[in-house]
Amino acid sequence: HLTDRSGTGAGHGTSGGADAQGDAGGVSYGSLTVPVALGSGGGAGNSAEGGVGGGAIKINVTTTLTCNGKISANGGNGQADGVDTTDDGGGASGGSIYIICNTLAGSGYITANGGNGDDNGGGGAGGRIATYASTTTLPSSNVTVTGGTGYISGGAGTTNLSGAVTQLEVSAIT
């Protein structure tokens, strides 16, 4: 018989949440100002997979980026073990979103939230979002890097919402 073992939450913008056995979640990594790192997968329990880490998105627009939907690099949720509640998967961390534009507009959402750990699994940390826009009318409350829930929740990630377009670069889209 295996010892009960749940998965911890993955870290990215901050630390992931601990599991029920007291194992610490993943640590923070990546850049606050130029976020391009992928989110990490949550820890697996004895009989349950951890969530899949969030992706990395870079958008470089020379004029206006209008977001009326959702730009998302969220981490996935940990799985239940299907037998009891002691060997659950941990939540994955949110990924990265890096936006460069002249105007950031719309009423949509930009999210790099951590995934939830299942019962005794730790919650995934929020990811990292940085925007560089001379003008922003998208509500800042619509930009989220929330940590996922779990035995111990993952921490909130980081946002860097800059008014200066100092990181401007030209990229070819293929």
Q: SSE layout and pairings?
A:
Elements: E1 56-60, E2 64-66, E3 70-72, E4 96-105, E5 109-111, E6 128-136, E7 143-144, E8 158-162
Parallel strand pairs: 1-4, 2-4, 3-5, 4-6, 5-7, 6-8
Note down, in words, how this protein is organized.
- This protein has 174 residues and is an all-beta fold.
- The protein is built from no helices and eight strands.
- Strands 1, 2, 4, 6 and 8 form a five-stranded parallel beta sheet that branches. Strands 3-5-7 form a three-stranded parallel beta sheet, with no helix packed on it.
- The radius of gyration is 17 Å and the shape is elongated.
- The protein starts with 55 loop residues before the first strand and ends in a 12-residue tail after the last strand.
- The model is unreliable at 165-174 (pLDDT under 50).
Features:
single chain; about 170 residues; mainly beta; five-stranded parallel β-sheet; three-stranded parallel β-sheet; about 0% helix; elongated; disordered C terminus
The span between the termini is: 52 Å
Structural class: mainly beta
The portion of residues forming beta strands comes to: 15-25%
Instruction: State Rg.
Output: 17 Å
Major sheet size, sense and barrel closure: 5 strands, parallel
Helix content: under 10%
Low-confidence stretches: 165-174
Oligomer: single chain
Basic shape: elongated
Number of helices: 0
Order of helices and strands: EEEEEEEE
Secondary structure tally: strands: 8
The chain-level mean pLDDT equals 90
